[in-house]
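User: Show me a protein chain along with its predicted structure.
Assistant: Here is one chain, sequence first, then C-alpha cells.
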Amino acid sequence: MALIDQIREDVVKVPLEGRNKPDILRELVQVLADAGDLTDTESAYRALLEREGRGSTGLEKGIAVPHAKTDAVDRLTVAIGIAPTGVDFDAQDGNPSQLFFLLLAAPDQSGPHIEALSEIARLTRSDAFCRSLANAESPAQVVELIQE
C-alpha cells in the first residue's frame, strides 16, 4: 500500500501543540492511538525516543521523519503533523522543523518502511509543496495536498 493511500484526516494533526521533541513524538503517537492504529502507545513512544537517541530524524528545510520499528503496530503506520512556527528537532541544518512525518513499522517489515521513507523524500523535494503543507490549516487540506 502506498504511503499516500494511508494518509487520512484522522492521522493528521494541524497544528501540533508540542514545543519540543518529546512532546511532538507523544502527540503524534497519540494521534495514531486515537485513530486505532496502535496496540501499545507507550512502547511506540519508547521506540521513537530510542531511535532519536541514535541520531535525530530532523532533516533539512523544516522536515522531520521520526520513525521506529515496534511491536505496537502490525503494518506500516503513518501520522503527519504540522507545526507552523517550527519546533527544535535537532535538525541537520539547525533550523526548526515544521513538517513531521511519523512512521512506525513492525520489526519484521523493512520493505514498506524503506519505501515510505523514499516516498516522503520524493514528496518533499518541492519547496513549493513544503510551503503549502506548512501553511495548511486543517487535516483535510493536508490530505488534499498530498493526494494531488
